Structures are given as structure tokens and as C-alpha cells.
Automatic annotation (TrEMBL):
Protein name (database record): ATP-binding cassette domain-containing protein
One GO CC annotation: plasma membrane
Reaction equation(s) it catalyzes: ATP + H2O = ADP + phosphate + H(+)
MF GO annotations: ATP binding; ATP hydrolysis activity
Key words of the record: Amino-acid transport, ATP-binding, Cell membrane, Membrane, Nucleotide-binding, Translocase, Transport
Positions of the ABC transporter domain: 4-232
GO biological process: amino acid transport
Protein family per UniProt: Belongs to the ABC transporter superfamily.
Length: 232
């Protein structure tokens, strides 16, 4: 489903050069929940942003759904990115727009009629349990509800993959666990492949099938949760 091969990401600003990601090889299978863990500054976010080329790698190849991302034209890349949803720590909702408009936003230019958009948004809000909030604004919602809206928006174009960048880091433990339940349900019911960055071990243990541990831009170790957390 996702293959990151020999990935390096090097930032050069003025006279300062930072190697954020070095020699990373990761394969994520279809339907898998793959965790990326490590301390702040390890390169997790940079690495995950190479998957949709939000951060083009300096070296290496990114393949998603059998397509080598760097070989796509601008138009093809726009299409490929629609099939890769993303959510963030701070939700990134449009505060001056309703929940309906936030979720409908990625459907602009999709060719769907107004009724079809309304139907799709209702279906998405139902999926995340927020049908009744359609006319509210983000400021009227709790953190967990905002993240549910962000998830609904990320799923608007029926992606195959959901990238989660510290998606529960701004949430309390109880809300975190309800968001993890939702992600698990999406994985099981839709077959959604999920890549989740986290610094919380509980997230890894409760949710992920496999995990890569990053430090200083490298993958130190990767494997199944059972292998990594079972003491012999
Ligand atoms: P993590 O997600 O694990 O906290 P990041 O991927 O955000 O790590 O950062 C990895 C390293 O790359 C850090 O040293 C960070 O300062 C650096 N970095 C990230 N983005 C940029 C950028 N746009 N320009 C320069 N350095 C960057
Ligand atoms: P725009 O003119 O901004 O492109 P539209 O004319 O498509 O927007 O829709 C007008 C407004 O109607 C939208 O901003 C949206 O908030 C609202 N709307 C449409 N359908 C629904 C619905 N089922 N539930 C809530 N609001 C809706």
C-alpha cells in the first residue's frame, strides 16, 4: 500500500543543514494500522509528510497504491492526494465556517451536485457520530468533537489511507480513547490503512498492528506490536 524506500530529507536554510530523515525504509500493508513513535525532533512528522509529498524527499522513492508519487504530473498528484486523508494535532478546521462547510470543503470541484454533497456530508457526520452538529461552528465543539469533524473531512474523498500526525496529543485520556475507538472502527469497517504518529505508548499498544521507532531521523527498530512489547 505504502512503500518508502531509502528516504532522506535534508533541509538547507542559509548555512544550516538539517538531516531530518536518513535511510528510512518502511512498507505499510493495505488495511494495516502502522505507528511511528519517537521523541520530538526524531523526524516523524517530516517522514509522514513525504507520503503525500507535502514534504518531497531529498532522496528515495515514495510509492502509494502502486503509483510512484514523484513520477506523477501535478494533476495526477492532486488526484492521488485525494486518496490520502490527513489529520493533525490542532485539527486545522476553518473557524468561520460551519461543521457542514468544513466537511464539504474537500468535495468542492468534485462534480457532485448540492444534494449529493449534502448526502455525503450527512453520511460522514453520521460515521463519526456528529450528525446533530452540522450547523454548529468549530468553537462550539469540544476537542474530541473537533477531531471527529477533521476525521470526517479527511474521509470526504473516500481515501485509502489516513495519516494522523499526533492526532490525540491535544486530547485528554478519555477523549483520546474514544478517538482511537473511532480510528479502529474505520480500519475494521472501511479497511482504511492508517499511519499514526504518536509519542504516547498507550496509543501504540491499543491501536497499532506494527510500529517503527525513530530517533535522529533513523528507524531504530520496526516490527509487530506483539514482538516489540512481549517480554520473552
Ligand atoms: P518530529 O515529528 O519527530 O517531532 P520533525 O519531523 O518535526 O520531528 O523534525 C525533524 C527535524 O527536522 C527537526 O530537527 C526539525 O527541527 C527539522 N525540521 C523540520 N521541518 C523543517 C523545516 N521546514 N526546515 C528546517 N528544519 C526542519
Ligand atoms: P456556496 O454558495 O458557499 O458555495 P452553497 O450554495 O453550495 O454554498 O450552499 C449554501 C449553504 O447551505 C452552505 O454554506 C451550507 O452551509 C448550507 N447547507 C447546504 N446543505 C446543508 C445541509 N444539509 N445541512 C446544513 N447546511 C447545509
Amino acid at each position: 500500500m505504502i512503500e518508502l524506500k531509502d528516504i532522506d530529507v535534508i533541509f538547507s536554510n542559509d548555512d544550516k543543514v538539517v538531516t531530518a530523515v536518513k535511510d528510512v525504509n518502511i512498507t505499510v500493508d493495505r488495511g494495516e494500522i502502522f505507528g511511528i513513535v519517537g521523541y520530538s525532533g526524531a523526524g516523524k512528522s517530516t517522514l509522514v509528510r513525504t507520503i503525500n509529498l507535502l514534504q518531497p524527499p531529498t532522496q528515495g522513492t515514495v510509492t502509494v497504491n502502486g503509483q510512484e508519487m514523484q513520477k506523477l504530473s501535478k494533476k495526477e498528484l492532486r488526484g492521488a492526494r485525494k486518496k490520502i486523508g490527513m489529520i493533525f494535532q490542532h485539527f486545522n478546521l476553518m473557524d468561520s465556517r460551519t461543521i457542514f462547510d468544513n466537511v464539504a470543503f474537500p468535495l468542492k470541484g468534485s462534480g457532485l451536485s448540492k444534494d449529493e454533497v449534502a448526502h455525503k456530508v450527512a453520511e460522514l457526520l453520521d460515521l463519526v457520530g456528529l450528525e446533530e452538529k452540522t450547523d454548529n461552528y468549530p468553537s462550539q465543539l469540544s476537542g474530541g468533537q473537533k477531531q471527529r469533524v477533521a476525521i470526517a473531512r479527511a474521509l470526504a474523498n473516500d481515501p485509502d489511507v489516513l495519516l494522523c500526525d499526533e492526532a490525540t496529543s491535544a486530547l485528554d485520556p478519555k477523549t483520546t480513547s474514544s478517538i482511537l475507538d473511532l480510528l479502529r472502527k474505520l480500519n475494521e469497517q472501511l479497511g482504511l490503512t492508517i499511519v499514526i504518529i504518536t509519542h504516547e505508548m498507550s496509543v501504540v499498544k491499543d491501536l497499532c498492528h506494527r510500529v517503527a521507532v525513530m530517533e535522529d531521523g533513523h528507524v531504530l527498530e520496526q516490527g509487530s506490536i506483539v514482538d516489540m512489547f512481549t517480554n520473552p
